[in-house]
Amino acid sequence: MKSFFKTVFILPVLVAVVLSSCIKDPEEPPVSQIPLGDVLTIDSLRKMYQGEAIKFTEYKSVYAVVTADDNSGNLYKNIYIKDNTGAICLHTMSSGGLYAGDSIRINLKNLVLTEYRGLLQLDSVHVDSNIVKQATLRPVEPILTTLPEVIANPEAYESQLIKLENVQFLFQDAGQVWADKPNQVTLERTLEDCSGNTTIVRTSGYADFANQLTPTGSGSIIAVMGIYNTTIQLYIRKPAEVVMNNERCEDQDDGLELLTIAQVRDLYQGSATNLPANTKIIGTFISDVTNGNLTNKNAYIMDESGEGIALRFLSAHNFTLGQKVKINISTIELSEFNNLLQINNIPNGNARVLGNGTLPEPAVVTLAELNANLDNFESRLIKINNASISSTAYTSGSISISDGTGNAVMYISNYATFLNAPIPQGTVSITGIASCYGTTTQVLIRNTSDVVETGPGGGTNHDELTLMSVQQVRNLHTGSTVNIPASRKIVGTVFSDVANGNTLNKNIFIYDTDNTTDGAGIVVRFVGSHSYPIGTKLSIDISNCELSRFNGLLQLNNVPNGNVLALGTGTLPQPINATIDEVTANINYFEARLVTFNNVTISGAETWNGVSGNTTITDGQNTITHYTTSYATFKDEALPTGNINITGIVSIFNTPQLNIRSLNDVTTAKNRK
């Protein structure tokens, strides 16, 4: 018994000894051998820089937290850091290795404190030899500020992570890709607040989110503030930090009284005056700054009162023909310049684009009527028929025009994109803006499509043809191919977009928007290729032309290209908001019309090109095919993710399908409330 208890007692002791001999102290992570040296703050670095590059030759350190990294591809080899005193950019020798939220120590030895295009940075940073990570996952809260504050104090916010609220992208930049990913081209989008202050959001074509779409509403954005020369630029870290689901600023109640342009014009009594406080006007741009026949500080608009007025902005603008705009005109000067009435010195931020407006029909006048009643026609869109032009080319300056009843001048700017282009000879119609310079009556054309040759010189006299509505043409087809009766024409506006390639260049979709009772659309298939841009108004001689269906789609087939007479700029049809079920169940009505499907998704491939051009649109209950041609300029762009609003032309290829014209037809759907 003694030996048994002795053995039992000894065994635990032996086990404990053996185990204790196997257990080692836990290993510590390797301690960095980079000397600490003096510790500096970012603020002290900024004060140290006096315009000349500084290379650190001794060991010194800065402690900071990474606020933005280069892992998304939007900030190539640029890392933004901050401490409690300020922020600065690190320009690294290679990409990767640092992440937002990393707490780091920067060894300054061999680094260079310098500026690049106005942005202060620590250059030549080797992540392995200059950086010691202290911790990870230490996110930094952005500084909540405003655009006016950032614009007024750029030095205070340089390289800082900031958050702006109540902002939005300009109308023309909303619902657009962040950057050109296929071509890896950086793009800039303009951000504005509800007071009209603006800045640039710059996105690299290498960013992994470049082909996603900018939001269309208003809300907040988190971004790093950079500088390029003297221009403030924002760089986002990821689209999830751009939350803009609210109504756009222009849709919110602004408390301003709406005046018609007619009321504004009546306020002028012969001398300069200031417009009433708390007032605004809403109208549609009838001028075309894109083609340069008007200085880029000037514009003309018309409103529903039928009146127009000249606008003079404080700086260059990019408002385009057909955009609908709201302008705060409170206390702004109303005056004449060389007898032309204008609203003068408008801050650009006072104008907000509301979307695409409806261009007014030009008033048909003779030059005698125009000269006798210029005050009534000034700044309005007019059309002069049976006119002749004294020049064979659009040369700079004043060109005489005549219509047999009187004379005027057609003014051509030295900056017009069509400068020195040939002018049609013979009798023409001229569409333009009625204006004046001193006592001289001027007609300002927007682009070359405003001058249309009408004869003589052969071809069809369209005035002698009987006008049919598009719906009347469609009604002629009762199931089999027919020919249109002799001496017939249709007049309508092209709403397909040959320039972006998703409609073949022998085809157009045309809609008779002038027909307010039973407007409809139809496909016209020409014998040869055409180049009629979207929005062009055409008169088409369809005498004896074939009306038939091709794979279910009704079309006017083999129409000679010479049967077309361009009439200038027409009115685009407004899209019909419909469901997929409504369209497919009523295809005879919706065929060749413009529709919008709201809150739908599109899938079936990674790009618009899809499978043999086909992708699928669904609203959760029903589906319809979207078709993209192999010639579409956007065929290789990524399909949007999430819910979208999509506008397109209803077509048929055995079964119903939708065709967008360009990526402008696709916007991000707002969240349901």
Based on secondary structure, the structural category is: mainly beta
Outline type: globular
Tell me about the biggest sheet? 9 strands, mixed
* Domain module count: 6
What fraction of the residues are assigned to beta strands by DSSP? 35-45%
Task: Tell me the name of the CATH homologous superfamily of the largest domain.
Answer: Bacterial OB-fold
What is the CATH topology assignment of the largest domain?
OB fold (Dihydrolipoamide Acetyltransferase, E2P)
Q: Give the % helix.
A: 10-25%
Mean pLDDT figure: 90
Uncertain runs are 1-31
Q: What is the number of beta strands? A: 48
**For this structure, what is the CATH class of the largest domain?**
Mainly Beta
How many alpha or pi helices?
11
Judging by the overall fold, what is the CATH architecture of the largest domain? Beta Barrel
The gyration radius over C-alpha positions equals 33 Å
Query: Distance between termini?
Result: 85 Å
Short description:
With 673 residues, this protein is mainly beta. Helices cover 11% and strands 40% of the residues. The N and C termini lie far apart (85 Å).
What does this structure look like?
The chain has 673 residues and is mainly beta. It folds into six domains: 38-135, OB fold (Dihydrolipoamide Acetyltransferase, E2P), CATH 2.40.50; 143-251, OB fold (Dihydrolipoamide Acetyltransferase, E2P) (Beta Barrel), CATH 2.40.50; 257-356, OB fold (Dihydrolipoamide Acetyltransferase, E2P), CATH 2.40.50.550; 363-455, OB fold (Dihydrolipoamide Acetyltransferase, E2P), CATH 2.40.50; 462-569, Beta Barrel (OB fold (Dihydrolipoamide Acetyltransferase, E2P)); 576-668, Beta Barrel (OB fold (Dihydrolipoamide Acetyltransferase, E2P)). The protein is 11% helix and 40% strand. The longest helix is centred in the N-terminal third of the chain and has 21 residues, at 2-22.
